[in-house]
Amino acid sequence: MTMGFGIIGTGMIAHFHAKAIQAMSGGRVVACFNQNPEKGRAFAAEYGCRACDSLEQLLSDPEVQIVTICTPSGAHRDPALAAARAGRHVVVEKPLEITLERCDDIIRACDESGVKLCTIFPSRFSPANLALKAALDSGRFGRVTLGDTYVKWWRTQEYYDGGGWRGTWALDGGGAFMNQAIHNVDLLCWLMGGVSEVAGYTGTLAHERIEVEDVGVACLKFQSGALGVMEATTAAWPGLLKRTEIHGSRGTAIVEQDSILKWEFAEPQAGDAELLSRLGGGSATTGGAADPKAISFVGHQLQLQDFVEAIAEGRAPQVDGREGRRSVEVILALYRASTTGASVKL
Predict the structure, then answer these.
(1) What confidence tier does 281 reach under pLDDT thresholds 50, 70, 90?
(2) Cβ–Cβ under 8 Å, residues 120 and 94
(3) For residue 19, how many C-alpha atoms fall within 13 Å in the half-sphere facing its CB?
(4) Do 175 and 90 have their domain in common?
(5) Is 300 a member of any domain?
(6) Which of 137, 212, 233, 299 has the maximal Cβ count within 10 Å?
């Protein structure tokens, strides 16, 4: 069975969705909508789909079963609610929304309409991160003590000036953490479990004319008792690969981008050497460290494939709306901690 996708918003990230849908099995791009008709028509011509004149036209198309929301972050809720109420399954590009209330509105609408909801976090589908999650779940680290993640990227002033919504609280919802590093915030929460307390600082140090942070650091307490650090910036020239480190009483693993740099445990297993051979050796891509377009659509493809299969099998997708809400909660806690100077309990 092939499911039809309608794409709402046709900016940069929508191209990754369209390419992922074209590459996957069981999906095709049927329609798109942009409030700017010219941009919508150009996108439709590129991907061989219909350009709709209104959101209502897209949602009434009987060939559209799934809607992907690719609008600016602070404009996710309204089209997601409309899609859910029209009986369409909903995919929302990260973040799910920029406040917890807006996240909850989307989750509730999808629950009430009986449609499935997923938040795009393709890093969870990377083979290196899946191996890391499996090692954690099997107890190979012993007592997990530290979980750290670092996103030290570079964005030019032109990047912020070129999009009217970028760097604003109203539509971006935040800066280096909410826009760029949220992938790794989600990844760390997925790997380490729930966060109980957040402290930290943010600043705007290298860019002008933006309301939000271009650098931030956070200290975390996890519900397990483990501690952690998150660092995020768009002010680290020339931009470095993102990195996640997990440490415990019986092991350490470090993943940089999609490659395993360190994989060492007190009790080695037979498959460790093969894993390092396959997934070690450094990343072949820059992963968006300096150019937001320099990312692969394969993660999107794997996640959208899971979503289509979840619909067919009647199960929850691997990253549903409630999972998508977690990273927003942690980032908003950091923003509050930075403003008040006091740690924030979740």
Answers:
(1) confident
(2) yes
(3) 12
(4) no
(5) no
(6) 233
Q: What is the pLDDT of residues 87-118, one digit of tens each?
A: 999 999 999 999 999 999 999 999 999 999 99
83, 98, 115 - which closes a domain: 115
Tally of domains within the chain: 2
Q: Which domain holds residue 85?
A: 3-115
* 133 in any annotated domain: yes
Q: Rounded mean pLDDT of the chain?
A: 96
Kindly state the tokens that stand for 1. Answer: 């069975």
Q: Is the model's pTM score more than 0.90?
A: yes
Residue 28 lies in a domain: yes
| Distance of alpha carbon 18 from alpha carbon 32, whole angstroms | 10
Asked if 148 contacts 184 with a C-beta cutoff of 8 angstroms, the reply is no
In this structure, what token pair is assigned to residue 57?
Answer: 């036209």
Strand 3-8 vs strand 66-69: parallel, antiparallel, or unpaired?
A: parallel
- Give tens-digit pLDDT for 222-253: 999 999 999 999 999 999 999 999 999 999 99
- Whether 317 maps to a domain, the answer reads no
